[in-house]
Amino acid sequence: MVVSTNSSHSPGRAYLGRLGCVIIIFILIALLVAPLAWRRMIRVYYAQHIHVPTSAPHRPVAIVFGAAIYNNGRLSTVLRDRMETAIVLYQEGKVGKILVSGDNRFEQYNEPAAMKEYAIRRGVPANDIQPDYGGQRTYDTCYRARNIFGVESAILVTQEFHLPRAIFTCRRLGFDAIGVSADLRPYRGARWYELRETAATLVALWDVIRQDSPSVMGDPIPMG
Predict the structure, then answer these.
(1) Residue 158 lies inside a defined structural domain of this protein
(2) Which of 50, 56, 114, 194 could form a disulfide with 73 if both were Cys (CB 3.0 to 4.6 A apart)?
(3) Is residue 217 part of a domain?
(4) Contact at 8 Å (CB) between 139 and 204?
(5) How far apart are the C-alpha atoms of 183 and 63, rounded to whole Å?
(6) What's the domain range around 115?
(7) How many independent structural domains does the chain possess?
(8) Considering the domain boundaries, does residue 166 fall inside one?
(9) CATH classification of the domain holding 100
(10) 87 in a domain, yes or no?
């Protein structure tokens, strides 16, 4: 009788194969769960720093994060609600200045200019509105607010899904930041926003660890 000595069928190798599969599965689960857990932790921790306009404490500046605009300069619903919320804060004396930060990478696309024009039409004096043309990302807006515009304390104005990441980023970059929710209505694509925010919150951790300068900087422009 011939006895097979093929080690590929040995119990030890089969066990190692199963163990390898289990390890791979655990790694895949960890890669999936880690961003969700981090996002949840940030939301819970920074919930205490999120206010509605009527209960918000006073701060020198409101920082409004940019969002999409259309070809004619019309603000998207999300961005219009952010501006309306900042204007209410200004009109109620909660802030003295509004920093409008957004994307201006393309010749025919200028979020800060459209945001400033909207606020002026709503009665905010032009001298109290500071455009930031380098706010291509949340990190860029926070970094430039501190290092270009000299902001030391501010109310961040954006939708609630975005606020925990924005507050986390600005605080880790060295200034006192609280948030006011600009959720004035339900928004289409809310599930997509939440999914995108989960990934972006993990990227924000990497950003604040490195604290690299944004691609667009410039000379200081103190807001007074």
Answers:
(1) yes
(2) 114
(3) no
(4) yes
(5) 16
(6) 47-210
(7) 1
(8) yes
(9) 3.40.50.620
(10) yes
Residue reference for tokens 């902001």? 151
Measured distance CA(39)–CA(32) in Å, rounded: 12
pLDDT of 30 reads: 52
Q: What Cα–Cα distance (Å) separates residue 20 from each residue in 11, 17, 26, 98, 172?
A: 14, 5, 10, 55, 39
Query: 193 pLDDT band (50/70/90 cuts)?
Result: confident
Residue % of the chain over a pLDDT of 90: 72
Residue keyed to tokens 């000595």: 5
Name which of 1-5, 164-168, 207-211 the model is least confident about.
1-5
Rounded to the nearest integer, the mean pLDDT of the chain is: 88
- What's the pLDDT band for 123 if we cut at 50, 70, 90? very high
Most distant CA pair in the chain, distance? 99
Cα 79 off chain centre by: 14
Output the six-digit token pair for 7: 């080690």
